[in-house]
Amino acid sequence: MGNPFQDQLLKAGLVNKKQAKKAKLEQHRSHQQKKKKNSPEVMSSNKAREEQVAQATRNRELNQQRTEEARQREQEAQVKQLILNNRLELDDRGEPYNFVEKNKIKRIFVSDEMADQLSRGLLAIVKSGDSYEVVPAKAARQIASRDQGAVVVFHVGGNSPMGTSD
Predict the structure, then answer these.
(1) Burial, 82: exposed, middle or buried (Cβ in 10 Å; 0-12, 13-18, 19+)?
(2) What are residue 109's DSSP bridge partners?
(3) Are both 98 and 157 inside the same structural domain?
(4) How many domains are there within the chain?
(5) Do the strands 155-156 and 160-161 form a parallel or antiparallel pair, or are they unpaired?
(6) 2-39 per-position pLDDT tens digit
(7) Which helix (H) or strand (E) holds 49?
(8) 163, 135 in Cβ contact below 8 A?
(9) DSSP helix/strand/coil, 37
């Protein structure tokens, strides 16, 4: 038979058979929906959705990282190209020009005219790999805008060095 509580309501005349049947049907439907929510298929689809979201987040982060690395490589290539296109010829028999990089005194040999231009800020010393090159001030500014660490000595204004690496 049915629900004893439902039977009592029917006998008391508080509900009719149609209402009791409707209530029983709604109760059955809600019970079925609870089963579906806790079913393995629904749980696995929720899990799959969560995994998709996590995977999409990882992919976005990886793409952002790759983009940043590509931008960094592009800037490094631009710095190399600027140095190669603008470097001036060093004079091995000229006077030594001493400068400081990372608390070490370094020396390159330049002509008297280049040494004067270096001290006035018309030329700058930049690092290219393991060697040092002398470039014009305009090129040094372009290099500094892409990689501040590449500019080793660049006197701007009142002999204050710009781009010294400590």
Answers:
(1) buried
(2) 96
(3) yes
(4) 2
(5) antiparallel
(6) 677 777 777 777 778 788 888 888 888 887 777 766 66
(7) helix 40-86
(8) no
(9) helix
79 found inside a domain:
no
15 is a domain residue: yes
Q: Could you tell me if residue 142 is inside a domain?
A: yes
The pLDDT tens digits for 133-159 are: 999 999 999 999 988 888 888 887 644
Q: 3-class DSSP state for residue 103? A: coil
CA distances from 70 to 22, 63, 142, 147 (A): 66, 10, 19, 15
Rounded to whole angstroms, how far apart are CA atoms 154 and 142?
Answer: 12
Q: Are 33 and 98 in the same domain?
A: no
* Integer Rg of the chain from CA: 39
pTM: 0.58
For residue 25, tell me if it sits in a domain: yes
pLDDT tens digit sequence for 80-115: 999 999 988 887 788 888 988 888 998 899 988 998
Sequence letter at residue 52? Q
Domain that holds residue 144: 88-161
